[in-house]
UniProtKB/TrEMBL annotation:
One Pfam family matching this protein: AMP-binding
Keywords, in A-Z order: Acetylation, ATP-binding, Ligase, Nucleotide-binding
E.C. number(s) listed in UniProt: 6.2.1.1
GO biological process: acetyl-CoA biosynthetic process
Molecular functions per Gene Ontology: acetate-CoA ligase activity; ATP binding
Domain spans labelled AMP-dependent synthetase/ligase: 61-430
Domain of life of the organism encoding this protein: Bacteria
Residue ranges constituting the AMP-binding enzyme C-terminal domain according to the UniProt record: 480-558
Protein name per UniProt: acetate--CoA ligase
InterPro entries, per the entry: AMP-bd_C (IPR025110), AMP-bd_C_sf (IPR045851), AMP-binding_CS (IPR020845), AMP-dep_synth/lig_dom (IPR000873), ANL_N_sf (IPR042099)
Keyword Electron transport: no
Length: 584
């Protein structure tokens, strides 16, 4: 077992960073939150300055910023100082290539230190960094390049040859392709970034940026049409920092593991920025999900704070508790989940199997950071998203002819709305101003998610507005049905949709994948239906259950109900570029 080292936790776990949620909310201001950061002269700032540079005159400079776990071989420890030098070399390389502030730089690579250095170096230089999933095929990459018009692509030799080389010459904006990692032979038109960076200075004066200058461009898929590019600014770092502290309870001596890929907004906001601004040691694993490897990482690296996706949790649940109990997971003190609502069963499983419950939280690509959370110092209500974090005002709203009306009744469902502004709020959809404006009514951002708020101020996810099932006058939230199905000991995952019915308008159909050792037979189908009818009543329970070996999911873990519905009814599937698949 690897020792946590001097940067690791010592003795008893520290108290939660947020112990009195109501008291902090009452006095919180974003101005005071910004004062927790260093800033730059003249009211300017830069995300990379807050993540790296401000630590360099402190003992944190020698703390391990990243413990990189390659697929094979020994871990690589990189201090805050060393990571800053890598980022500086990349920033100097961009400058030498004529890249200007505001230019977009795309990163398409697996989780390696070079990718993180490229992201931070781009921000240091004042560029706009856009992470893309390395598992995207050629077409999703090309469509995002055509929308965002980057001047630089950062990728690996293997990914370039397989997914980019055939079409890159037809996209004139991409002037440079920088190859990171091992490069056997740089193809024509590309540059070995490692070799080029070695010739650059490890010193760089991070560029002071206006708070509203663009810093990040994150693509998010809609149900139809091309993906949307959500623009985020340097001011977003204020929200990344404070929500990392309050919602994830990050404290300076933590060993933190966010399993999200930087190609997803979580892997940037909470896989790069929040942990570094909070001075923690982050674990970065190059390999994809493997249950035994994951438990071994939690044990050997003495992970204290773990942020992962419901999909991964369900996959661990599917394998049973025995594997977990073969490992010493006593270092864990805070577990959090994001990507889609977390079923209550997963919260209970975490407590029983890992010794800690999972704390769900809610946010979107557009919000840029965590908005609603079950924080460490607050009781968990399993199945709830939690309560708004300090600085965020959330409400349940009903659209009217004149705008919106806020819903007061705890039993009533409406659209989740957030009062603007907050620092990490997206500032636009690239090239789609009208689409952006439709997201707002007055001072409220309408999320497209249906929710209710209970008498204690906890929010409960009902479903996407276009996912809700209307059956015989009832509005049925698929998440509620899925959570009950998950209570059956044979069920690993469940996805629920509405299918047309001549009498009821729609009826509920469930798609279920099973845990190992369970046969998808008629007896089990009747058993699952019986549980649902007993718990939900005949008006809400599924009429049909179809067994599937696996359900379609996005790489952020969300079950793609619209894809289940499209395939069931023979409808267009829309954008499937974020559909989970094998590693490429």
């Amino acid at each position: 077992m690897r020792s946590p080292g001097p940067q690791g936790p010592a003795g008893e776990a520290p108290p939660p960073a947020l112990t009195d949620h109501d008291a902090v909310r009452a006095t919180f201001s974003w101005r005071q939150a910004r004062e927790q950061l260093a800033g730059l002269p003249g009211g300017r700032l830069n995300i990379a300055h807050e993540a790296l540079d401000r630590h360099l005159g402190t003992p944190t400079a020698e703390r391990i910023a990243m413990r990189f776990l390659p697929r094979q071989g020994e871990p690589v420890d990189i201090s805050y100082r060393a990571l800053a030098e890598r980022a500086n070399r990349f920033a100097n390389l961009l400058a030498a290539l004529g890249v200007k502030p505001g230019d977009r730089v795309y990163g398409i690579a697996h989780r390696t230190p070079d990718l993180y250095a490229a992201a931070l170096g781009t921000l240091k230089h004042g560029g706009v960094f856009t992470p893309l999933f390395s598992a995207f095929g050629p077409e999703p990459i090309r469509s995002r390049v055509e929308i965002g018009e980057p001047v630089v692509l950062v990728t690996t030799e293997r990914l370039y040859r397989r997914k980019i080389a055939d079409w890159i010459g037809e996209t004139p904006s991409a002037q440079r392709v920088l190859l990171i990692g091992e490069v056997a032979e740089a193809p024509p038109g590309t540059l070995d970034a490692g070799q080029a960076m070695s010739e650059q200075s490890p010193d760089y004066a991070t560029r002071p940026m206006a708070p509203e200058d663009p810093a990040l461009l994150h693509f998010t898929s809609g149900t139809t049409g091309r993906p949307k590019g959500a623009i985020h600014v340097h001011e977003a770092v204020v929200a990344h920092h404070v929500t990392g502290r309050y919602a994830l309870d990050l404290q300076p001596r933590d060993i933190y593991w966010c399993t999200a890929d930087p190609g997803w907004v979580t892997g940037t906001s909470y896989g790069i920025i929040a942990p570094l601004t909070n001075g923690v040691t982050m674990v970065v694993d190059e390999e994809e999900f493997d249950a035994e490897r994951w438990y071994r990482i939690l044990e050997q690296e003495r992970v204290t704070v773990w942020y992962t996706a419901p999909t991964a949790i369900r996959m661990l649940m599917k394998l049973g508790p025995a594997l977990a109990r073969r490992h010493d997971l006593s270092a864990l003190r805070f577990l959090a989940s994001v990507g889609e609502p977390l079923n209550p069963e997963a919260v209970h499983w975490g407590r029983a199997t890992l010794g800690r419950p999972f704390h769900d939280n809610w946010w979107q690509t557009e919000t840029g950071g965590i908005m609603i959370a079950n924080v460490a110092g607050m009781p968990i209500k399993p199945g709830s998203m939690g309560r708004p974090v300090p600085g965020i005002e959330a409400a349940v709203a009903r659209r009217t002819d004149d705008g919106i009306e806020l819903v007061k009744d705890p039993a009533e469902t409406g659209e989740l709305a957030l009062k603007t502004p907050w620092p990490s709020m997206f500032r636009g959809y690239l090239h789609e101003e009208a689409r952006y404006r439709k997201c707002f009514v007055g001072d409220w951002y309408l999320t497209g998610d249906l929710a209710r708020r209970d008498e204690d101020g906890y929010f409960w996810f009902i479903g996407r507005a276009d996912d809700v099932i209307k059956s015989s006058g009832h509005l049925i939230g698929p998440f509620e049905v899925e959570s009950v199905l998950m209570e059956h000991p044979a069920v690993a995952e469940a996805g629920v949709i509405g299918v047309p019915d001549e009498v009821a308008g729609e009826t509920v159909k469930a798609f279920v994948s099973l845990k190992p050792g369970h046969a998808p037979d008629e007896a089990l189908r009747r058993e699952i239906l019986g549980l649902a009818r007993k718990r939900l009543g005949p008006a809400v329970a599924p009429r049909q259950v179809e067994f599937r070996e696996r359900l379609p999911r996005t790489r952020s873990g969300k079950i793609m109900r619209r894809l289940l519905r499209a395939r069931e009814l023979g409808l267009p599937e829309g954008d499937t570029s974020t559909l989970e698949g094998g590693r490429e």
